[in-house]
Every structure is written in structure tokens, then in C-alpha cells.
Structure of Mg-protoporphyrin IX chelatase:
Amino acid sequence: MARGLHAILPPIDVVVGSIANADPSCPDEGDSLFSFSTGFLWEDGLAGRGEYESDGSIKTQVVRSPFVQIPLGVTEDRLIGSVDVEESVKTGTTVFQPGLLAEAHRGVLYVDEINLLDEGISNLLLNVLTEGLNIVEREGISFKHPCKPLLIATYNPEEGAVREHLLDRIAINLSADLPMSFEDRVAAVDIATQFQEYSNDVFKMVEEETEYAKTQIILAREYLKDVSISREQIKYLVMEAVRGGCQGHRAELYAARVAKCLAALEGREKVNVDDLKKAVELVILPRSIVSDNPPEQQNQQPPPPPPPPQNQESADEEQNEEDKEDESDEENEQQQEQIPEEFIFDAEGGLVDEKLLFFAQQAQRRKGRAGRAKNVIFSEDRGRYIKPMLPKGPIKRLAVDATLRAAAPYQKLRRERDTQKSRKVFVEKTDMRAKRMARKAGALVAMSYSYYLHI
């Protein structure tokens, strides 16, 4: 599904020579290694200059939107970037090697089984995606580049829960356990079988629909700038979030963005009722705390008492005011027509529409499993290598990759000082890096034998 979504994304226009898919229409978002004014690919100009058109402008090219998958065993250096050992040895200076986040800018960043991702890696990923900027300050590197990909992640609740603050940063949360009809299952097996045997024929069969979807996305990106959402519609989304028991403000913020995107996708300039309902279903409902019991009838409040009698003059003035109010009410009615007549959540936090009970049960299931913490032990001798660190005494496990990166910028200088030409690589004690290892904590279960002896 993630790769299918990537297939309908339109191509992007990038600056030739940029390592982070720099957008030529947004010069303020250029990376540290590229300057739109000078065209330098590196800050000190060691790697040459960018390419120019005949009119003196920066050369650009149209490329396919990137699709980058983060493996579960990814290291911090590969994710955010590190020192390029080969180039650093050649030039004698610290040269930056971009990571996966630089490649994923303006594309799709896919994480399979995000609940199994290392906690430190998920925290780094979360910070970068929240800020929209990757800042690297390590090993003599000072570098930054924009990082605004479309994050798509999957996880299986049976294999472990995803932390609540991580799920809260993801706008739309869908469930793959939706019930399917018999015809839908047959159609799914049919198209999957055809794709495995004749993939080219399937691509040709959906080529027209794919091109139409690409065109719709390109137009929607332009329409989105002019789409407006009224204050009353925002109040409706906030009230739904309050009734659903959502904490924080991300629920209504993401819901408003989703509603505007739905309107732009259909070429409309205003958000309507269906957009609001779909936004609540996709964004607010998975974050809600609802009960499985059907909502009870709420007690209706008695009507207000009639106003006291007034004299004729005040009655005439009131009549004039009512006429003005009627005119304003007609305008308000036109606006209120774009707001649903009833809420999805009742005042008690229960679901009004029983068809959405399945989503509520899925949300409650995730809530119940979210409190499980992963028992992890960090050490320097056992476990999986997660990141390098400065040694605090004797080194038990040497991080060869990090040690070489730390020593690479000084190879040229150290060769000049070596008169005997005895070695090709010079590594000093200050370059040494140790491995930081992590492993799951074991559980010891002690049972009393008196119970079995009694039996």
C-alpha cells in the first residue's frame, strides 16, 4: 500500500548537486552544503560548483519522488548522516556523508514494524520530522538540511505496542483489520494473482487511473493554498476532540489539515460536511477514549421561560432588531449548512454512530497495550551495536567504523609527519570509539515447590 501511494506521487523539481532534494522554488530551505547565491556544493568549495543554465540561474532537473525505507537495524550514523571516510582521507578535511533522512526529503519515508524500531532511533526520527530539519553536530561536523517527507509506518499490535507520544505525532491512524465482504476478498486475491504472474499487464490496466490520480494530486497541491475552513467548522472539530477525550491539540490541528486536503483533492475552496466527518473518523476517533456501550438518551432541558411583556415602543425596536437578526441568521444558516447536524461523540464520550464502534474497539485495544515498557539493558560487551560512544576506561568492543571516521580528517596531516612511511592509516588514542550495546533483559520466574509437593 505504501509503494502504491508512492507510485501515484508526481515527480519533483530539484536543484542539481543538492544532496537533500533542494526545492528551487524555496531557496530558504537549502541545505548547508549548497548555496543558491554562489552555487557551491560544499561550504568551502572543495567539491566544485553547481551547474548553471545559460541565463545564469541554478540548473534544476525533474526526478521521481524518492521512496526510502528505514530498516529495523539502522544505526544513528546511517539515519542522520556521518563522516565520509573516503573523501575525508583524500581531502584531509571533514566531509559529510548524507543519511537516509536527506534522501527522503520531499518523498516517502517508510518504516515497517515501527514498534520494533530502536527507542533511540525512533526518538531521533520523531524530533527531525517534528522540526522539519535535520541538524547534525558531531565529530567535527556542523550540518543541517530540510527533512519533510511523508511518513508511512506499519505495526502489528500483537508484536508490541507503539509508544503513545509517537502515535500522537502521526496524523492518520488506520486499521488493517476492517471486515471485508466476500466479493472484495475474491477481487483482492484475483488482482494479486494477476500481479504476481503478469505484473506489466496489471500496470497497463491501471495506467489511466494512475495518471489521473497524479494529475489530481498536482492540482490539489495548488488548490490547497486557497482552501478555507470557517471558525464554526473549527469549533466543531474541537468539540469532537473534547467529547472524544483527546488530550493535547494535535487531534484538532491534524483534523483541520485533513479536512482542507480532502476539499483540495476535489477542487473545492471550502470545507464541507463530508470533509469534517471524514477528518473526525481518520484523526480524532483513533485518539479518542470511548466506551463500547451504545449511547444513552440524554435528558432534554426544558425550554426557557417566555420573555416579560413590554411596551409598544420597545416592541417596535425589538421588531427592528429581529428583522436585522433574521438577515444575519440567513447568512449564518448558509454557513451552518457546512457543519454536521450532530456529533459523532455524545456528551458522555460514547459513539453516536454504532458503525464506527469497530474503530473505537481498535483504539481501546491499542490504549490497553500502550503501557508496556521495553526492558533493555545497555552495556559495552554484549548485545546489538546501536551507536558509538567515547570510552570511559578500557575499551571492550572497538567501534571500528566510528574510529575510522574520527581519524579520517587527520590522515593527510599525519602522513606528512611520518618520515618513515611505515603505515597507511594512522589511528591515535583520541580517535578510539567504543560500541554501545543493547539487549533485552531476561526474566527470572521463581515458583514455589510447596504447591506441587502438596498436590
